[in-house]
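Holo prediction. Input below; ligand is 5-phosphoarabinonic acid.
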Amino acid sequence: MLQLDYRNVLNSVIGDEHGLELHSEFAAYADQIKRIIIDLNSRKDKPEQWLQWMNLGYNEETVWYVKEYAAMVKNRFENILVLGIGGSALGGMAICEALLKPYWNMLSAEQRNNLPRIFFLDNIDPDQIAGLLDSIDLTKTLVNVITKSGSTAETMSQFMIVKDRLEKEMGDNYRQNIVATTDRSTGFLRQIAGEEGYKTFVVPDDVGGRFSVFSAVGLLPFALVGLDVDDIVQGVKDMDLALKNTDINENIAAQNALIHYLMDTKKGKNLSVMMPYSSRLKYVSDWYVQLWAESLGKEFNKNGERVNVGPTPIKALGATDQHSQIQLYNEGPNDKIVTFIRVGQFDSTVEIPRIFEYTGIGYLGGKTINDLINAEADATKVALTDYQRPNVTLTLSNISGYTLGQLLYMLEVQTAIAGELYGINTFNQPGVEQAKNYTYALMGRAGYEESANSIKAKMAAV
Ligand code: PA5
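Structure of the complex:
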């Protein structure tokens, strides 16, 4: 199982000013944590609670459908193109980057076992879109458009561009190159898919975008590129069982949620850095940043009182960011808690040859890159601790579907528990909706005229 090491947040290690007396904190919060875990598990099947993501590990039907569809289209496409943004893209990117062979899209078809390349278009940069469309043959591409609401301007614009091109290039056959993942019954994409006859998958009710990676939102792209979805889902399920434990001493999601909450509210550490020591886990940080930020950054608590809470998540990558951010983390304001992610066993071992004798670099020869990245991770951890900077470490035995399923699901539960500790609604995103609405207004969507006038007046005043 995934391991959490929280030794370096203890006051006995980093001192009373910055550290926590966790033994007594765990005891003080034991009942509240127990109530939170029982409450989340008892509400998860009820409508409007937005907790259906806790059931995704048990959704055998979806697993079956995505595998069946992937088998059906096998060998038909050279590329998968995922259109989506935010929660509709980040989980897919995180897991594909972690589990596919590095530089997957650069490998030959033979090296990929004839499985398709995969591209995520998660932005609306004109140069990027034009560049991508110049680079791939759309007629040999399966386009998976993903949007729960079916109206997000970025995703629907991408889709309109790609659909138009496909139709021009393929005539009526273009429909075979589109699969839509969206709400079961509502939204424009659902309507269009029905009218046009696209194959569709469902974003389940009461599952928000940032908690949707283990629904068809993530599982379909994973199956299409040959990832073992059963292994991923097994990891989710086993972690879910482990996290049903209501004893804080046995529940790592509860422990890490409480540690982060106390660090923010008692010790002023309101910046939360996620730093994996593995390039394959780089996008796990992007996914985590969205999960933590959108879930916990809230203006009001559940009683409607203005609280403006939320720790700010930051992504970092070891060892790369030792040469950019660590100076600040060691010596700058002591306002952060760092979460390291470590990998017990890398898939590859790369030796550093003994080709230079110079004293300053000769010592590297004969070691492995694995030794080096692990030494750097240890060094950063010890240095931060010396500077009395709190840090925790999550360790995966290796990088696999099973361990990734565990890691991402654990972070989802950690976020849900943290939200309860802050007393806020973890599952809404009024700040995101407001930005979406302003965009609709500025782009001339009917019904948003008043808002458009008010925004234009504000812009003119600036
Ligand atoms: O987590 C969320 O709810 C958001 O980030 C959404 O995923 C994002 O805004 C995209 O929304 P949609 O899937 O409706 O296009």
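The chain has a mean pLDDT of 96. That is the main takeaway for now.
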